[in-house]
Design a protein that fits this description.
Helix 2 runs antiparallel to helix 8, helix 8 crosses helix 12 and helix 12 runs antiparallel to helix 15. This protein folds into two domains: about 240 residues, no CATH class; about 110 residues, 3-Layer(aba) Sandwich (abc type-2 transporter like fold), CATH 3.40.1710.10. By secondary structure, it is mostly helical.
Length: about 375
């Protein structure tokens, strides 16, 4: 009898979903649209930064340094200036995001091994500023080493110093050897899109029934509150899993992100994760008085979850209290699962803790939503 009552509500929700074809089409197409938009627009690696140069030396030494900057791929010279004031003006006007000022006695300073240049970076753009700052330091150090080596070679000491390198550091990047940003972005993005979709799809389920007055018709039936919750979740669960398959499929086959792990394990854990999001949406719908209030709560939950969930920004840099707040959202526990299975290829022996948390979360959120729904009715 219990399954019959749940199936009756599920059929009702399916009929409502397929009757509104525009909303259904939007719910299916929106995740792919978000994935394409963020996949092409969002990048962590900033290159070809517009650079304006004030070369007051105009000699082979200064030209070699400018060539080293442009050859790295991090900078593109977009213009030349006469002095530092013109460089700052170009950055203020947005014509460049970095500027280089080379003094007039640069060549003489290089010969004395005491050359200095001024590198100006537009700090209003954080990602560009960090990339330009790190690139300028690294390129400057490598260019200085090349100049020093050339001077030593000309002096005849090169053969004696060739074997005096005290440290040889060899760095190997695991799981993403070419450091492609999409390999990092896509798993976290898939988790974020599933989270927002699953919460939004059910956030108005109960409050809509209350506003239209149909909740009283449902309450006169023998159905229990928990069965009503499950019946309303079931159609959205199917739709969310379809969205999950499309998002992962686009990430793997279109963007070329390799899927290293067990697909069936990922599918099962995604099912639990989506159930958590749908349960959280039901809880929001239960405590809301109107659909507008539920939409505002959904927006707040999505914003906090996205900022603290670790989908784009590392969580270990935040204070412990902020990390504890982030632990209240299922996104926080699914992001390591998505990256662990898709990127690293690890299994349940590594991800069991996050998987157990999601399983407990799903049970607790449904019990809590059911009890609050019963209390609101009383």
């Amino acid at each position: 009898m219990m399954l019959q009552r749940i199936w009756a509500v599920t059929q009702k929700e399916f009929i409502h979903a397929f009757r509104d074809k525009r909303t259904l089409l939007m719910m299916i197409s929106m995740p792919m649209f978000q994935l394409f938009l963020l996949g092409y627009a969002l990048t962590m690696n900033v290159s070809h930064i517009p650079l304006i140069v004030a070369d007051q030396s105009l000699d082979p030494a200064s030209q070699a340094y400018v060539d080293a900057l442009t050859a790295s791929g991090f900078f593109d010279v977009v213009g030349y200036a006469l002095n530092q004031a013109e460089v700052v003006r170009a950055i203020d006007e947005g014509r460049a995001q970095a500027g280089l000022v080379i003094p007039s006695d640069f060549a003489a300073q290089v010969e004395r091994s005491s050359a200095q240049v001024l590198f100006l970076v537009d700090g209003s753009d954080l990602f560009t500023a960090q990339s330009a700052y790190n690139a300028a330091l690294n390129i400057g150090q490598m260019h200085a080493s090349d100049v020093l080596l050339a001077k030593i070679t000309r002096s005849g000491w090169g053969a004696h110093l060739s074997n005096l390198q005290p440290l040889d550091v060899r760095v190997r990047v695991l799981y993403n050897p070419n450091m492609k940003d999409l390999w990092f972005i896509i798993p976290g993005m898939a988790a974020m899109i599933l989270d927002t979709q699953s919460i939004a799809m059910t956030a108005a389920a109960v409050v809509r029934e209350r506003e239209t007055g149909t909740i009283e018709q449902i309450l006169v039936t023998p159905i229990r509150s928990g069965e009503l919750m499950l019946g309303k979740i079931a159609p959205n669960l199917v739709l969310a899993m379809v969205n999950m398959l499309t998002v992962v499929g686009v990430g793997v086959f279109w963007f070329g992100v390799p899927f290293q792990g067990n697909f069936w394990l990922f599918l099962g854990l995604s099912l639990i994760y989506v159930f958590c999001g749908l349960g959280l949406g039901i809880l929001i719908s239960t405590i809301s008085q109107t659909q507008r209030q539920s939409q505002q709560l959904v927006g707040l939950v999505m914003l906090v979850s996205m900022m603290l969930g670790g989908s784009f920004l590392p969580r270990y840099t935040t204070p412990p209290l902020i990390q504890a707040v982030g632990d209240l959202f299922p996104l926080t526990h699914f992001v390591p699962i998505a990256r662990g299975i898709i990127t690293k290829g690890v299994g349940l022996e590594v991800l069991w803790k996050n998987s157990l948390i999601l399983l407990v979360y799903a049970v607790v959120i449904m019990v809590l939503a059911s009890r609050l729904f019963r209390q609101r009715l009383e």
